[in-house]
Amino acid sequence: MHIAGLGLLLAGLSLTPAVARESPVVVELFTSQGCSSCPPADAFLTDLAHEAQGVLPLAFHVTYWDSLGWKDPYSLGAATARQRDYARTLGREGVYTPQMIVDGVEGFVGSDRSEGLNAIARAARNRSAPVAVGLTREGDTLVISVGAGSGTARVLLIGFDPAHETHIGRGENSGRTVLESNIVRSLSTAGVWSGAPLTLRPPPPLGESTAVLLQSDDGRILGAARLNNPAS
Predict the structure, then answer these.
(1) What is the DSSP letter of 92?
(2) Residue 44's closest CA among 72, 93, 10, 84?
């Protein structure tokens, strides 16, 4: 599917700028450069990153392909642990690539564009009012603000790079040059939210851009925000 066609489909699925102002739908792709089934899913995520308003796409490169012919330079132990956490919260027996998770509650094969667009649209239509999450920068410090709400959740700080092109020398994708987008380089817990307004001031994470997710213990994304590094 061409990017223009993707844009038309997303417009038809009511992903309006109003959604972006409130809180983006979070799309997580679990992928690896060592997996021959992953490039189509990576391309889908790239199209979302370039074209989809109201969506925060993030690529988590897992580690369990690294011993199978090609070590992914962006593989991250925290990405593998996160996918396994999702397997537990979603009631799955194991993990696989490419897998896409939308707003922490719906998982499917990441190269399935039709299912992906439908899942994004469902998330935009059916989510309850998101918790307000803000992200700004003051000098060398980030300022994360979380509004009032109900429940408890972790405040996750994510550093990611908007794009990298890699020539793959070995493994299932040997000889291919792949363009990958919004590659997660770091993931940490900045704090815990318990329903009251919260402000946190952590240092910026590793990565060219930054995102914050407010995620409950059952996996639901309650709110999110992103900040592009002014130098990027």
Answers:
(1) -
(2) 10
DSSP, res 197: -
β-bridge pairing 99-102 and 133-138 = unpaired
- Residues 127, 101: Cα–Cα separation, whole Å: 15
Query: Which residues are CB-contacts of 5 (< 8 A; sequence separation ≥ 6)?
Result: none
Residue in 139, 135, 142 with CA at minimum distance from that of residue 213: 135
pTM of the model: 0.91
Give the HSE-up count for residue 139: Cα atoms under 13 Å, Cβ half-sphere. Answer: 2
> And the tokens for 165?
């092109």
Per-residue model confidence as pLDDT tens digits over 208-231: 999 999 999 999 999 999 997 644
* pLDDT, tens digit (0-9, with 9 covering 90-100), for 14-47: 443 333 346 899 999 999 999 999 999 999 999 9
20 Rama sector, left if φ>0, alpha if ψ -120 to 50, beta otherwise: alpha
Buried b (16+ CB within 10 A) or exposed e, 40-49: ebbbbbbbbb
Q: pLDDT digits over 83-128, tens only?
A: 999 999 999 999 999 999 999 999 999 999 999 999 999 999 987 7
SS (H, E, C) 97-150: CCEEEECCCEEEECCCHHHHHHHHHHHHHHCCCCCCEEEEEECCEEEEEECCCC
